[in-house]
Amino acid sequence: MVEFDEIVNNRDCVLHTPQRRKQVPVPTQSGSDEPMKRFLFPRLLAAALVLASMAAAQAQDRRFDPKALARYDASYVRCEASFPEMKGRRDDAYLNLWRVKPGPKATARLAAARSSAPYQAEHRLATARRPSPAAQPDAVKALERQCRGLYGELERTKAGR
How many helices (H) and strands (E) does the chain have? Predict the structure, then answer.
């Protein structure tokens, strides 16, 4: 099968001498797509920026789940026992997990979630059912792994600022 370029650039053809070749336009497979290429990148860039800003706004406006926050707080106390460097950084660590920028608005939302009745009830349950290290060594190992991961994430975000 003969390729398109071989036909167009055939040196034996009278129509494709060097003088004539400049005059004969070489069609592209999809026609003239030069205007489309010119506007494609800015449109894609604009769409990406819109999507990124929507995702960031959604993360900032998401309500905190009081029950999940209570379980997190109960396990964070145990992490503080293993990693003393984590003391006093509970809110920053939680906000970093959800990719929410720390600030007065986020702190106020956390305080509102912690004062709610579902948080109080779940926090009582989470602190009451603490596993003893001798009874469940696998649970303690899993908690230690999670604490190391949380501490690493906290250090990574602290170094990035």
Answer: 8, 0
Residues 6+ apart with CB under 8 A from 137: none
Radius of gyration of the chain (CA): 31
Token pair for residue 41? 């990148």
Q: pTM for the full model?
A: 0.57
- Least Cα distance to 61 among 12, 109, 17, 120 occurs for 109
Phi, psi dihedrals of residue 40, rounded to the nearest 5°: -70, -50
Q: 13-57: per-residue pLDDT in tens?
A: 666 566 655 555 555 555 555 655 666 666 776 777 777 766 655
Inter-residue contact 110 to 91 (CB < 8 Å): yes
Cβ proximity of 18 and 11 under 8 Å:
no
Write out pLDDT tens, residues 103-129.
999 999 999 999 999 999 999 998 887
Nearest to 79 by CA among 88, 51, 68, 9: 88
